[in-house]
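Figure 3 (text version): structure tokens given as input.
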């Protein structure tokens, strides 16, 4: 073994690899756990319900399903066919059991399209279905 000199910093090195690993793990954790509230489609104009109850906060297990005026079904802004939507609902039902559903249907959507979403939920065994509406009056503005 050689002698160490007083100015030698070989014994003072710190391995930064574990710290970098922890930082990346924290970044991944925060990205995964961010709320998905930003995924609401702004193009959907909700129906009026002046006398309905106001929901301040959803139950965390609630899945929000959107139906556009053209009948497109989406979850978190991902458009789905009816078959794909049914598969997602079956998969989630198998993993979580019964969970609540909130349907955000455009007020110009056909009843047939909203009913298709309700029928799929019922067929899968989901019966806790709510509808989102607004207290604003849409008839005074443009469609």
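Below: residues designed for each position.
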């Amino acid at each position: 073994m050689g002698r160490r000199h007083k100015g030698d910093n070989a014994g003072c090195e710190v391995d930064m690899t574990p710290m970098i690993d922890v930082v990346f793990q924290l970044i991944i954790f925060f990205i995964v756990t961010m709320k998905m509230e930003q995924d609401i489609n702004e193009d959907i104009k909700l129906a009026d319900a002046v006398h309905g109850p106001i929901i301040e906060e959803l139950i965390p297990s609630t899945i929000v399903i959107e139906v556009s005026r053209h009948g497109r079904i989406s979850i978190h802004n991902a458009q789905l066919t009816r078959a794909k939507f049914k598969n997602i609902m079956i998969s989630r039902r198998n993993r979580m059991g019964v969970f609540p559903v909130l349907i955000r249907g455009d007020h110009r959507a056909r009843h047939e399209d909203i009913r298709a979403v309700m029928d799929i939920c019922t067929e899968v065994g989901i019966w806790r279905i709510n509808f989102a509406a607004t207290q604003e009056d849409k008839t005074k503005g443009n469609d």
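The chain has one domain: 37-140.
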